[in-house]
Specification:
The chain has about 160 residues and is mostly helical. It has one domain. Helices cover about 70% and strands about 0% of the residues. It is built from eight helices and no strands. It is elongated, with a radius of gyration of 18 Å.
């Protein structure tokens, strides 16, 4: 048997899952890093953009929910979005409270997916990030190379 064929079986599969998890975490950290924090946190640009999308959304539930939950609290919501990306990225990359971080990232992806449902050009990244999150949750990608494993928490 070819040596590479053995990488998909046994304990090495856990390392492939860890690599996938770490890559996803770095993707979230890059999302945080490249975001213009001044525009998002001081000028409200991110939430203003989201509002312009939500106002024209084809689903009334999205329009109403945005108007009821996000619109009255633009500054708080900007901080929640920006620092959720950071927290999710750190948690997934370091493997700390991994299932919680993965579920948080999946939720962020799904919220963005629903908001931008009409713009399929924007959905590739979110679809892939959501899929990787789901795979990592179901396959328990915190078994190696994670703080969870070092602390023997959350099934690691």
């Amino acid at each position: 048997m070819h040596p590479l064929a053995t990488l998909s079986y046994g304990p090495t599969a856990a390392y492939w899952l860890a690599a996938l998890r770490i890559g996803l975490g770095l993707w979230w950290l890059e999302s945080f890093r490249h975001k213009n924090k001044r525009a998002w946190l001081k000028e409200g640009a991110g939430i203003a953009w989201a509002k312009s999308v939500a106002e024209k959304h084809r689903f009334g539930l999205v329009r109403k929910s945005f108007a009821r939950v996000v619109e009255p609290r633009p500054k708080q919501m900007a901080y929640i979005v920006v620092f959720s990306e950071l927290a999710v990225g750190v948690g997934i990359t370091a493997g700390f409270l991994t299932p919680v971080a993965l579920a948080g990232g999946l939720l962020l992806n799904l919220l963005y997916f629903v908001l931008m449902i009409h713009d399929w050009a924007e959905q590739g990244q979110n679809s892939m990030m959501a899929l990787i999150s789901l795979v990592c949750i179901l396959a328990r990608a915190n078994q190696v190379l994670s703080i969870d494993h070092l602390l023997h928490i959350l099934g690691a």
